[in-house]
Amino acid sequence: MEKIASLCEKMGVAPDECIPYGFDKAKIDLNVLNRLKDKKDGKLILVTAINPTPAGEGKTTVSIGLTQGLKEIGKHPVLALREPSLGPVFGLKGGATGGGKASVVPSDDINLHFTGDLHAITAANNLLSALIDNHMFQGNELEIETVTWKRCMDMNDRSLREIDTPQRKDGFVITAASEIMAILALSSDLTDLKNRINRILIGYNKEDEPVFVKDLGGADALALLLKQAMNPNLVQTIDGVPTFVHAGPFANIAHGCNSIVATKLALKLGDYAVTEAGFGADLGMEKFLDLKVPYLNKGVDTIVIVTTIRALKSHGHSADYSKKDLPAMILGLPLLEKHLKNIQMIGIPYVIALNHFYNDDQEELDYLMNWAKENNHPIALAKGFAEGGKGMIDLANIVCSLAEQKSTFNPIYDASDLPKVKIEKIATKIYGAKEVVFSKKALNQLEKYEQLGWNLPVCMAKTPLSLTGDPSVQGLPESFTLNIQEIRPSLGAGFLVALTKGIMVMPGLNKTPRALTMFIDAQGNIIDKE
Hints:
The protein is 37% helix and 20% strand. It is built from 19 helices and 25 strands.
């Protein structure tokens, strides 16, 4: 690894703008953005994917590999990724620093405590819970009747979904689903952060009127806990590509993008800013375009959609997607085609990145490559895991070519649409739902929010494993109904969260979590014996 101070110098970050955390990671002072405000932005490349298998399809690995490929062809890319949550690290998916020769380092630090951002978010979230309960205990001057704010913890722990306290019923969400996480990711500076915290809805009083943090107080204390966390974290790929890893909202239950400030820094410091949106294009891409782009003041120049042979076979109902099954792969192609049609509808140039696994069958690879070319879909084989940047040159060249084309953005819904209409447009246009059915609770909430004037963008909380709300439904469903069970205001973040039936904001661990297969040796090295 290159010393972090040296990496900053090469990027154009001044010594007094680099806040080192040891020799291999640093935080970058937001004053860089003020200094470079008149500098032209680089090209914005968004990496997304089809609906994955439960273990994921290597979208982060492709994002990392793409920047390495851009470096190989003489470009100056900067990567911007989300911070990993300890829930998946110790659960099913594992860490989020790529793999093989397409990795971000120091991997173990990033996957665990890193620079403490997620701990700060957890502390700020739970300080607010403590302030609410203390206010009610000390006389309840605001006459709070119903508390909607939840505690949080950065771990998969299903037993904490509902708890009883001496004051009231409460519960936990995972830190990645906390509104504080979404606020941090969407804030442009400390002033914006504090203003957003003040707008947080904490509950309703005895007259059923909303109560906000600005009524309770304490926004400055929460912002103080988040002061360092607002500065983006800088690390690097194993071959020295600058990488911002900052903020980590989940894409199934939150908006799934790294921070606004990290992406803006990548745009100012590189000629190509590569970033990813969590899970499949139905979730991450849609949320990136509808919830994040308005704050960037910069449109997406190219979309890279990651697919794998095994994911296509899974969506083609293969009994074992690790084995050759060409008929199943062919049956899975309509799902990929649906995602491509969605991107074409939106109007942004795209390329398919076929992430290569060592056991991929050559006949299946050839079939997919030929299918894409026959249907005029740009495609490149992505071999970043095995070959690093050299295995990503084809994809990098295609991305550079596409980024020079005109990119438009046809919005999925209009800002003036009521939230119910926005939900219906996302469900029918992006997912392909035949209809949307709202629970009585959700309809009552929508009516109440309309009366309160909360006509905001929508963040869909839905399974990533299917276009439907049912994770067991694979492939491209011909006709389905999407059920909306609840609408939660996230006013500090600036959107309403629509929860589909069955969605959980506090995940549980799988039967054999990765925590049981991780060991540490006498030198402190982590060994995964999976």
